[in-house]
Every structure is written in structure tokens, then in C-alpha cells.
DNA sequence: ATAAAGTGGTTTATTTTATAAACCAAATTT
DNA sequence: AAATTTGGTTTATAAAATAAACCACTTTAT
């Protein structure tokens, strides 16, 4: 009757991050923080979880002298997101 | 950009319960437990939360000698569900 | 009649998760 | 050179979900 909701995606902040990343080539930490309106600490933790699941890739580098964290959705992340959306529909349609 | 997701509804089990109740006149504890596949303890706790928020009404009675718990969505619950679904769309569309 | 098992739950304890607070290293501003 | 800002991470706390125990009965089997 109801499809299971991937708990990693069923989180407001992680879902927002994935929702952003699915629509862009890449996005950096600062951008994600502004768009989601969350705290840096929370974002840091949630990005880690998404990365550990292989849903996003994180590249750290320096832009001049400042650190820079760029995130990008992976194919696995894309698939998981699509499945999650599909599962959600079993609840809301 | 992203609408807030009502945390009371952003829970797999509570969402499933609301999803069932929105489509029927009423449903009892046993039916909800079977449809959702959850444990009685978990269902009991989550129904309480929905009831305390005024999203569902709970009537307790006896059917012959056995206790019976009947749940019904309220107008407030109906509205909250509709809003939640609408908010979700800002993430998945 | 009594013990064992089942029904329909509730309550309490444990684990997991989310969130916030504190911190760090370096850069920039005053 | 002290204070503030940037771009984060780490750690502590609060909240939530889940599971395990339990309770009050009823039904079935002995």
C-alpha cells in the first residue's frame, strides 16, 4: 500500500539540498546555506550524511586563500531522489 | 524558495495514518495497524500526537467485550494535510 | 477451573536523528 | 594588534522514532 520512504531523504534539510542539487551542475556550501536558510553546523552534518551515502560528491579546495566546498549530486543520488518522490506519491495522491 | 514542512506530518507513520484517514469516514486501531504495518506501541504514540494537535479525533468504546479505538480526521487535519502536500511540492517539482 | 495464548492496546526505555552551541583557522576590517 | 567576519567542523543537547515491557482483559485448550 505505502512505499517506504528512504529515511536519508525524508529530512527537510537533506531533501532541500538534494532538491537544489538536482537542478544545478554544482553548488557550494555558502550557496546551499543561503538557499536553505539553515545553520552552517547543521548543513555540514547533513552534507556529510548525503556524501557518505554516495548521494552527493563533495570537493574541497581553496579559492584564493579561502576554503571552498563544492557539492554535486551523483547518479546514485539522482536515482534515490526519483525513487523517494515516487514513494511519496503513494502517500499524497 | 522552500516551504516549511509541518514536522508533525513529516513522519512516515503519521503521514500514512493521515493518508488513510483522509480517504475514509473512519478507521479503527487494528485496521490502521495492519495497513501501516507498524507496531501497536508506535501507532499508539503517533495517534496521540495527531490527536493532541487536533488533526484526528479518537473515540474509545467497546464492541461487545473488546475495546475499540476509532479514528477520524478533523477539518483541521484535512487542512494541515493539504498544506503539507502543497509544501512538499516545492521540494519535488 | 485453570493455565496458556491471543487481542487491543498503553507506558516506559532505548536508540536514532535533528538542531544548536561552541569552537577553530585563517582572512579582513578598524 | 584587537575585533569581526568567513567558511566551515566538532561536540553537546533536545527531540523524535522505535522497540521492549507491560496491562487488562477474552478466548481457547487441558
Features:
homodimer; 93 residues; alpha+beta; Arc Repressor Mutant, subunit A; three-stranded antiparallel sheet; elongated; DNA-binding
What does this structure look like?
The structure is a homodimer of 93-residue chains. The longest helix of chain A is centred in the last third of the chain and has 18 residues, at 75-92. The first copy, chain A, has one domain (12-87): Winged helix-like DNA-binding domain superfamily/Winged helix DNA-binding domain (Arc Repressor Mutant, subunit A, Orthogonal Bundle), CATH 1.10.10.10. Chain A is elongated. By secondary structure, chain A is an alpha+beta fold. Chain A has a 3-stranded antiparallel beta sheet with strand order 1-3-2. In chain A, 53% of the residues lie in helices and 19% in strands. Chain A contains 4 helices and 3 strands. In chain A, strand 2 (56-63) and strand 3 form a beta hairpin. Chain A binds a DNA duplex (30 and 30 nucleotides) through residues 7, 11-13, 29-30, 33, 38-46, 48, 65-69.
Relevant CATH superfamily of chain A: Winged helix-like DNA-binding domain superfamily/Winged helix DNA-binding domain
Alpha-beta content class of chain A: alpha+beta
| Fraction of residues in H or I helices of chain A | 40-55%
Overall pLDDT score of chain A: 96
CATH topology of chain A: Arc Repressor Mutant, subunit A
Roughly how many Å apart are the termini of chain A?
A: 12 Å
Low-confidence segments of chain A, ≥5 residues, pLDDT <50?
Answer: none
**From N to C, what is the helix and strand string of chain A?**
HEHHEEH
CATH architecture heading of chain A: Orthogonal Bundle
Number of domains of chain A: 1
Strand order of the largest sheet of chain A: 1-3-2
Using DSSP, what is the number of strands of chain A? 3
CATH class group of chain A: Mainly Alpha
The largest chain-to-chain contact, stated as pair and per-chain residue counts, equals: A-B, 16 and 16 residues
